[in-house]
Amino acid sequence: MVFQRVKTPCVGICSTGIGDQVCRGCKRFNHEVIQWNSYSNEQRRIIDTRLQNFLAQTVANKIEITDRSLLASQLKHQQINFDVDRNPYCWVVNLLNAGASQIEDISQYGLKVLSKYDHFNLIDLKKLIDQDYYTLSCAHYERYFFPVEID
């Protein structure tokens, strides 16, 4: 296996500097943002895997991939960057970030919006995915890292 350095998940929209415990941009925890450069590649991979799993779960709750090959083909055709080694549900976010306002028929990308969310346009669905991803990251932080006061 070839060594692959884990890239920073930073998207340039950091909210930890204004006091958030979970970054609204990349969804890492405050201490992970601050200590990222001192982490080993394995520590970074653990964080990256958690973020990838949370994002994939959030997308899969709203959108179904009906044809992974078609999705990959369309992303390549549209020249949208995506990492083939990541969960394909993360690819969906790349697609939505690149062109949610321009997509008329999501089925042409091998995707189907689940019936519970089919009344959302793709721009609003993209926002909802991001909100739910943030909420899931916050819940994980609060469950495992937030100091609990015991009376």
Q: What does this molecule look like?
A:
This protein is mainly α. Helix content is 47%, strand content 4%. The chain is built from five helices and two strands; from the N terminus they run ααβααβα. The chain has helices at 30-35, 41-60, 68-77, 88-99, 122-144; strands at residues 63-65, 111-113. It has a two-stranded antiparallel ribbon. Helix 2 packs across helix 4 (88-99), helix 2 (41-60) crosses helix 5 (122-144) and helix 3 runs parallel beside helix 4. The longest helix is centred in the C-terminal third of the chain and has 23 residues, at 122-144.
Oligomer state equals: single chain
Could you tell me the mean pLDDT? 92
Helix content: 40-55%
How far is it from the N-terminal to the C-terminal residue, by CA? 50 Å
- Please compute the radius of gyration using only Cα atoms: 17 Å
In what order do the strands lie side by side in the largest sheet? Answer: 1-2
Which percent band covers the strand fraction? under 5%
Low-confidence sequence ranges: none
Q: What is the number of beta strands? A: 2
Outline the fold blueprint.
Layout: H1 30-35, H2 41-60, E1 63-65, H3 68-77, H4 88-99, E2 111-113, H5 122-144
Antiparallel strand pairs: 1-2
Helix pairs in contact: 2-4, 2-5, 3-4
